[in-house]
Design brief:
The protein is an alpha+beta fold. It is built from 13 helices and 16 strands.
């Protein structure tokens, strides 16, 4: 039980014969001949009140339960700490058979009484005796297991994708907010620049211009229209150049000398290039000419900033669209490199926050799959996200692709602590997780394996030592392939 909670349900050992009549009214025992049953331990009758927790997630004592009256609910702890309904069992139904048949060592769910409920539970030993001796019960149990596993696979895939999208949402909002805010600021500054440019243009055009003045301005304009990329300089070099330019402009009587100097230096102007304006224009006109030029150069830079911001937003939207809708439609071609890059764009905020370097070696050519497979982006999201979690701050994640005959190989490597040898055989088991309760569903790698093997006809392997863990995925280039790939 959880700390602070008290167990109010009671367990009473009963003779099997005394509950035979009520068990006959349940699905599993409807056709069982109690006279032919093997020797069983006396089962326990459980009487629970509404809200009682009958089984805690992670318990290692497994039972086969029959609901005589009332209703119970299976709950799964999600990564956000909330609990999600995983299933219900009503009067006449059974539960607990799936962990037993699948060979699990613990219970993945928390079992809670929805209302006052009475149950009978059999030990693991007696469950297998019943399975061996009662064909009718065995048929019901196996049908229930098949139904639960099928429903689990459908719901788990959907739930894990929602969990993945939820995990990415905060980062995406941050990623969209930054370029959106930058574009808004640039647009506001651009409006102010255009108004100032108009005033300067009107003032600057009052007097006719000589041929030398027109040639000088034409050259300066051509320079300012070279593009969006500012001249690359070190911080110290740039500060010295701006200070020198500001002093030169101030000495020439230019208005706002130290405000316009950084813009002119950033666009690559130097004093020699501006000397023609100082030579051919009178002092007041020279000041207006330089301020007009700065306004124009600054406006070009702001337009470039807006373009960059909108391009960034478009890239993010496209990446999310590819992630969310790549499973639509029938047979198609799918670029593995494009799918990996879209995932990296979506996870970019998390990787930057943790200052994790991503090293890409995209050597596969071709990297196009002809497939009906779905949710490849979900595979990369789980693997790269896990690699980021396993990596130390300022760590490195390596992503590599290569070709084998009829196959494409993809590996994702982190340099964290590694996976303990005793844990390694279980990492693809459903609901297995080494994370604290509420921080991991234990579904991610199981779903990754299912997508790779069942949807794409590929394979997934993991190798781990302290300081290096590598997940290797191999996918057939032309759909499912009968023979497996060779090891790299």
């Amino acid at each position: 039980m959880s700390e602070g909670e008290m167990q109010t349900w009671t367990a009473t050992t009963v003779q099997l014969a005394n509950v035979a009549d009520v068990l006959k009214r349940t699905r599993p025992f409807a056709d069982v001949d109690f006279a032919t049953l093997p020797v069983l331990k006396n089962p326990e009758r459980i009487d629970a009140k509404t809200g009682d927790i009958l089984v805690e997630a992670g318990e290692t004592s497994l039972y086969y339960w029959i609901v005589l009256s009332g209703e119970i609910r299976a709950e799964l702890f999600e990564s956000d700490g909330n609990r999600t309904k995983a299933g219900l069992a009503l009067a006449g139904e059974a539960f607990g058979e799936t962990p037993l048949v699948l060979g699990r060592k613990d219970v993945p769910f928390q079992i809670v009484a929805v209302e006052d409920t009475s149950l009978v539970r059999f030990t693991e030993e007696d469950f297998w005796k019943l399975m061996a001796a009662c064909p009718s019960l065995r048929k019901v149990v196996l049908a229930d297991v098949a139904t639960r596993v099928r429903n689990y696979q459908v719901e788990a895939l959907h739930r894990e994708k929602l969990v993945s999208l939820g995990t990415l949402a905060a980062g995406l909002m941050h990623e969209l907010h930054n370029p959106g805010s930058a574009a808004k600021r640039s647009a506001s500054q651009l409006r102010e620049n255009l108004m100032r440019l108009q005033k300067l243009s009107l003032r600057f055009s009052d007097k006719p211009k000589t041929t030398e003045q027109m040639e000088c301005m034409r050259g300066l304009l051509e320079h300012s229209m070279h593009g969006c990329r500012l001249k690359a300089m070190s911080s110290l070099e740039q500060a010295d150049a701006e200070e020198e330019m500001g002093e030169w402009l101030s000495g020439a009587g230019v208005e706002n000398a130290f405000s316009i100097a950084p813009v002119l230096v950033g666009m690559g102007f130097d004093q020699e290039e501006l000397r023609c304006a100082r030579e051919f224009f009178e002092a007041d006109q020279f000041s207006d000419a330089l301020n007009w030029l700065e306004s124009l150069v600054s406006s070009v830079g702001l337009v470039c900033a807006i373009e960059d911001s909108i391009s960034r937003i478009s890239d993010l939207v496209m990446a999310v669209k590819k992630f969310a809708y790549e499973d639509r439609g029938g047979a198609r071609e799918l670029d593995v490199h494009d799918s990996l890059q879209s995932t990296l764009v979506i996870l970019g905020h998390k990787l930057r926050i943790r200052q994790i370097e991503v090293e890409k070696h995209f050597d596969a050519s071709p990297a196009i799959l002809c497939t009906r497979g779905v949710a490849l982006g979900q595979v990369w999201t789980n693997l790269i996200d896990n690699a980021a979690d396993a990596s130390p701050a300022h760590g490195r994640v390596q992503i590599s692709t290569w070709n084998e005959p009829e196959w494409i190989g993809i590996s994702i490597t982190d340099h964290g602590d590694g996976i303990p040898p005793e844990v390694l055989p279980h990492i693809f088991d459903p609901f297995f997780t080494t994370k604290p309760q509420g921080q991991g569903t234990g579904l991610g790698l199981e779903i990754v394996q299912r997508i790779v093997t069942q949807k794409f006809g590929g394979t997934i392997q993991v190798e781990s030592i302290p300081g290096k863990t590598t997940f290797t995925v191999r996918l057939p280039l032309n759909g499912s392939t009968v023979s497996g790939p060779s090891s790299k």
